[in-house]
Specification:
By secondary structure, this protein is an alpha+beta fold. Strands 1-2-7 form a three-stranded antiparallel sheet, with no helix packed on it. The chain has a two-stranded antiparallel sheet with strand order 3-6. A two-stranded antiparallel sheet has the order 4-5. A hairpin with a 3-residue loop joins strand 4 and strand 5. The longest helix has 10 residues.
């Protein structure tokens, strides 16, 4: 099973993921967190810490896909 989540924090070694990205990752990877306060974001009810190598990929909105098709 896969999970989809919004990135709210990135570490110093992260190269391909930015805050605000929507990512897909395996359900059994990462460390669960809850009730955590993030400066500039607020309180996270449920979240996961995981390293970038465990991500399956980044998601794009339909709007972004349509804009790319128009640009090509």
């Amino acid at each position: 099973a896969w999970r989809k989540a919004k990135v709210v924090l990135v570490g110093t070694e992260v190269k391909n993921t930015q805050v605000g990205d929507i990512v897909m990752f395996p359900n059994d990877k990462g460390v669960s967190v809850s009730g955590m306060e993030v400066a500039g974001y607020g309180k996270i009810k449920r979240g996961m810490f995981l390293n970038e190598q465990r991500l399956f990929g980044k998601c794009a909105t339909r709007e972004a896909n349509n804009q790319q098709l128009v640009a090509e």
